[in-house]
Amino acid sequence: MRQIAQGRNEVVKKVSDCYRIALLPGDGIGPEVTAEAVRALRAAEALAGGFSIETEELSAGAGEYLRSGDPLPESVFERIPEFDAILLGAMGLPEVRWPGGVEMTPQLDLRERLDLYNGVRPVYLFHADDSPLKGRRAGDIDFVIVRESTEGLFSTRKVACDLSADAATDTMLITRLGAERVIRAAFKLALTRRRRLTLVDKANVLPSMAYFRSVFDRVAGEYPGVETDHVYVDAAALYFVNQPERFDVVVTENMFGDILSDLAAALVGGMGMAPSADIGDRYAVFQPSHGSAPGIAGMGIANPVAAILSAAMMLDWFDTAATRRAAGVIRGAVSGVFSNRAARTRDMGGTMTTGELAEAIIGAMPTVLESGRTA
Ligand code: ATP
């Protein structure tokens, strides 16, 4: 279940085995699922050994905006270099908006300001019954979407829009540097998996996407060991549903990746099962792909698995034998717990609370470690 190819850039590799993690729990269910991810991290740390973690909570999000007038205060942003990684819950609330009408999205600001271009979105089916697709067993759906996360169709998202004007535009920005670096990251990931990389674009219609494809084809020459293909984004939506097993690693621009990640999450149980990492050359943010789900916030029923698996991705990114082992323990425990169809939160048809599911996953960790069934 390889999900991150490279660990941290050699330049920032550290000598100490203590990792400082900034927690940004955020809004809605963010704090609930982040708390369970930290519990799982601590359990894996204690069991696997060989490293330690320290956490500190920082405030950002719609709630912070209501308090201070800024969803990502500079006093928070400037502290980021003190940490080895950021674990984020979820941000934004539908009723808290900028005057122009859009929601607060400090998580997007973080991606852009920290240059987190490599958006890694693993899609893995733990149990046949969790997929709406017929006849798929655990592990049959196992691919990773690599979403460019700093440009693409999100590039003009901050340009003010005159709502009374007769037209509005957004710009799909693809730069050579932006395309090359995310495509290389996807190739490197494919080399650690089944060595297949699919470019998802719209090169038949959009010039920016024809450019993206030309960069892809050129970079592909550097990786002769990886089999490649091109799929238009509309066809990708179809193939995700009727042939998901054809995919290993998929690379695409920002907006297509945003949409396809949610579709892919639906194949494996929903947003509560969709972890993610946004990785740059220096910094990385790990967060569940879901939003703040205000409709269920505070009820204790949010699915913590996406957040827990995101924490495991963070351990992979630290890239030592000990942290990779701990990540494998977490994923193995999720896999073990999910083999029992009853162990689910409400979003997946079960009755467990957020805390009960996290507790079951933590409880499964010692057996996973002893049996070597890490994932
Ligand atoms: P965003 O725009 O920030 O991505 P969104 O409004 O599209 O957010 P989510 O907050 O991700 O949507 O929620 C989509 C649906 O999935 C909602 O019905 C929500 O309750 C449900 N959901 C999301 N995350 C979870 C979770 N961890 N556990 C249970 N249900 C969840």
Structural features, described:
The chain is an alpha/beta fold. The protein folds into two domains: 215 residues, Isopropylmalate Dehydrogenase, CATH 3.40.718; 116 residues, Rossmann fold. It is built from eleven helices and ten strands. Strands 2-1-3-10-9-4-5-8-6-7 form a ten-stranded mixed beta sheet, with helices on both faces. Helix 6 links the parallel strand 6 and strand 7. 50% of the residues are buried. The structure holds adenosine-5'-triphosphate. The site of adenosine-5'-triphosphate (ATP) has 15 residues, from loops.
What's the CATH class of the largest domain, please?
Alpha Beta
Count up the helices: 11
The third-level CATH topology of the largest domain is Isopropylmalate Dehydrogenase
Given the C-alpha coordinates, what overall shape results?
A: globular
Task: Write out the distinct hetero groups bound to the structure.
Answer: adenosine-5'-triphosphate
Largest sheet: 10 strands, mixed
CATH superfamily annotation of the largest domain: Isopropylmalate Dehydrogenase
Order of helices and strands: EHEHHEHEEHEHEHEHEEHHH
Per CATH, the architecture of the largest domain is 3-Layer(aba) Sandwich
How would you write the strand order of the largest sheet?
Answer: 2-1-3-10-9-4-5-8-6-7
Q: Helix coverage percent of residues?
A: 25-40%
Structural class: alpha/beta
Low-confidence stretches: none
Distance between the termini: 6 Å
Strand share of the residues?
Answer: 15-25%
Q: Count the E strands.
A: 10
Rg for CA atoms: 20 Å
Mean pLDDT rating:
94
Please, how many domains?
A: 2
